[in-house]
Amino acid sequence: MVWTGTWVAERLGVELIGDEELPALLGLALRRNPKRAHLLVSGVLGKHVPQRPSVVHGSGLDLGRRVRALLGDEEAARSVVLGYAETATALGHAVADGLGLAPYLHSTRRPVDGVARAGGFEESHSHATSHLLLPEDPKLLAGDGPLVLVDDEFSTGNTVLNTVRALHERYPRDRYVVVALVDMRSAADLGRLDAFAAEMGARVDLISGAAGTVRLPEGVLEKGRALVAAHEAPYEPAAAPAHGPTAVRVALDWPEGLPDGGRHGFTPDHRERLETALPALADRVGQALDGARRPLVLGFEELMYAPLRLGTALEDAGHDVRYSTTTRSPVLAVDDPGYAIRTRLVFPAHDDPADGPGERYAYNVAGAGFDAVVLVVDSTADTPALHAPDGLIAQLAAHIPRVVLAVVPSYTPTAAPYSPYDATPQVTEAPERSSMLPEPLRGPAFSSYAPEEVGWLLQDLSDVELEAPTEEREEAIQSGGAHYAESLPVEYQPSGRYQELFHAALETSAARIALAVGTVTETVLAERPGRRPVLVSLARAGTPVGVLMRRWAQARHGLDLPHYAVSIVRGRGIDANALRWIAAHHEPADVVFVDGWTGKGAITRELADAVKEFEATEGITGFDPEIAVLADPGSCVRTYGTREDFLIPSACLNSTVSGLISRTVLRADLVGPDDYHGGKFYRELAGADVSNDFLDAVAARFDEVGAAVDTDVKELLAADRTPTWEGWAAVERISEECGIHDVNLVKPGVGETTRVLLRRVPWKILARRGADADLAHVRLLAEQRGVPVELVDELPYSCVGLIHPQYTRGATGVDGKAVVSQ
């Protein structure tokens, strides 16, 4: 028998390594995905590949029995099983069946009016919308017994571990069990579960049906994209029968009040009622099959368990039946025995989904030799779209002689829920929006900073090729109206001479920076008496400053300040999902936004507008859009360490002085509406990393500047710190005097000038006469790029970088897009 992963493996060089039974359990297919081109296709899940219902149900039953043996009957009776929509809803149900004593709940992508949300989470790079938790009994997740989480595949484990972490914060418990059909963790991920358990202070066990990993060759993403592009033809739906799309409707006589699945909870009592009713339900369906010899029971997205159990009952009655379900997931179909997805039916969504209309799919149904199909949907999905000429029933009728429609009533929770823990009905308010966004990324897995120094509210795009040469980026932005945040500049690799300048500058300026760090930190603390600020740095320039402020507060006051890094993009605003996560874990009024320095104040204005929009959209208030900065030469903010424009060594380099993290990325095909903005971790640059050298050198000078900090803060708090926006006025003047007539091509200050030389196409540098001490690295970079440096008087900054008007295609305006000079 040909392994259904052969086609992909031969063309991409992918290897499946692990237990002997893996090839029988998993095939391979391709999909469009920026992080993983291949798709592991289970042969026993009942989602993409039709399988005997007894095999699908039995796989979950076996895992559930293993969980019961692990926990023992007493703990099993106190447990709750949680499955993931859409793929693992039936698997989780079957695990609960095997466990036998526990209620079951699965996440859902369908909001239900009148049902409070007990939580939810976002799945990175999912093809679908957010997951919600909607138990009929709000106390279902609030017990202290073991929580059993069930998914089809445990790969990196991010989704499951993030869910556990978020639930643990609200409903702490001592034990978790993670269950998966296959454990496909890489060697790098194997230790994460133990580390996670230690971090949580809870026991976390893993049970799987088989284990292995996928070995991917270099360049597999690019090869996968090319392969998909070469084989993905436009889909043309088959013509419906001449008599039009029709289906024989069977009256199931579903037991009154019995849930159609685990969306709102499914108790052991519900399970007993269903088992009792199944033979009669299957008999009605069997009669409607009218002698069909090889029927398929086809479920509908999350509605997997009820169709599966109808299938097992038909199988028990002697039918040669198979089972699978429709899905949201778009996958390439290739008619080859060595490929897991042979055929694909495409049809419009027919349940009025919350995230809007879209395509849905049924795989390996057409051409599989079925002479009848029993389509099982809930009443919410029995809509005109289902019966339309291009709808699912028409697509099935074009390939299969007999279509039987069985509609299960959509369960509506009652006002007085049954609770396995407490018979007293209670109503609990739950957050309107999900609080279960992924946890912050931390070092050493993401960034070279210590994990306690900063949590990055970003998604890891380290495996995505985003860099392009400077001129190429400028051309792309100009020709297509592309946004600067859609790509990354090639990381500058400093010469030996430049590195020497960096270390020399650090040695001479460390005390000056320490003074500014202490001043801005003490100002922040003085402005919030009795409160513990939450530092939120604007990645990436603000992040080293945030780490230093955190270190000062710890060294001087014994305060352990939370610190997170978030993305803000000119013209696109701040990452709203990151703010949502912060608001779910901290008081917004405690948040202090932190940046490295101000130039002309564009980000200051951007943040104010973004916070205003966030409050209006999300209904979450309390964030103060004021930014605390190390240096404010543009006089744009009230809270600062100094208003002098001097060399901050963290501006001299890119990722190698910022925890090896890239500038942030915001691109539609990589960052969905429920994703954090992206960033890359340049692990390969570890040999050149000076991030912690910079931090340690500055922190070592804290003690010697303590008295000066106290004096400066006292004077600052008594002074008028109202922003004058002097820098903006200077930029407008320089723009006119130099004949540029575009403020967006003028980058003021040492930090911004350095960025121009490292990332952009510079025209010339204006240097203030007498400021040479802070400009050695600027002069070296200018020399390396052949850029003239002109000395000028009466400049409010030490220097100003001018982007070449010839390359206005690379100059970006306040909306982040290319602008044209006059």
What do these coordinates show?
The protein has 822 residues and is of the alpha/beta class. The protein is 32% helix and 18% strand. It is built from 22 helices and 33 strands. Strands 1-10-9-8-4-5 form a six-stranded mixed beta sheet, with helices on both faces. A six-stranded parallel beta sheet has the order 18-23-22-26-27-28. Helix 7 (192-200) links the parallel strand 9 and strand 10 (203-215). Residues 123-129, 415-435, 473-480 and 808-822 have low confidence and may be disordered. Residues 447-698 form the Cysteine protease StiP N-terminal domain. Residues 260-395 form the TRSP domain. Residues 725-804 form the PELOTA RNA-binding domain. Keywords: Glycosyltransferase, Transferase.
Radius of gyration: 30 Å
For the record, give the distance between the C-alpha atoms at the N and C termini, rounded to a whole number.
69 Å
- The helix content, as a percent range, equals 25-40%
Largest sheet: 6 strands, mixed
Q: Major sheet: order of its strands?
A: 1-10-9-8-4-5
Global outline: elongated
> What class, by secondary structure content?
alpha/beta
**Total beta-strand segments:** 33
Summarize the topology.
Layout: H1 6-12, E1 15-18, H2 22-25, E2 26-30, E3 38-42, H3 53-71, H4 73-77, E4 80-83, H5 89-99, E5 104-106, E6 119-121, E7 131-133, E8 147-154, H6 158-170, E9 175-183, H7 192-200, E10 203-215, H8 220-231, E11 248-250, H9 268-289, E12 295-300, H10 305-316, E13 322-326, E14 344-348, E15 359-363, E16 372-378, H11 384-387, H12 392-397, E17 403-408, E18 455-456, E19 459-460, E20 467-468, H13 470-480, E21 488-489, H14 496-526, E22 534-538, H15 542-557, E23 563-566, E24 568-569, E25 573-574, H16 576-585, E26 591-597, H17 602-618, E27 627-631, E28 639-642, E29 678-679, H18 691-699, H19 702-718, H20 726-737, E30 746-748, H21 750-759, E31 762-768, H22 776-785, E32 789-792, E33 799-803
Parallel strand pairs: 4-5, 4-8, 8-9, 9-10, 11-17, 12-13, 12-16, 16-17, 18-23, 19-29, 20-21, 22-23, 22-26, 26-27, 27-28, 31-32
Antiparallel strand pairs: 1-10, 2-3, 6-7, 14-15, 24-25, 30-33, 31-33
Helix pairs in contact: 3-5, 3-10, 9-10, 14-15, 14-18, 14-19, 15-18, 21-22
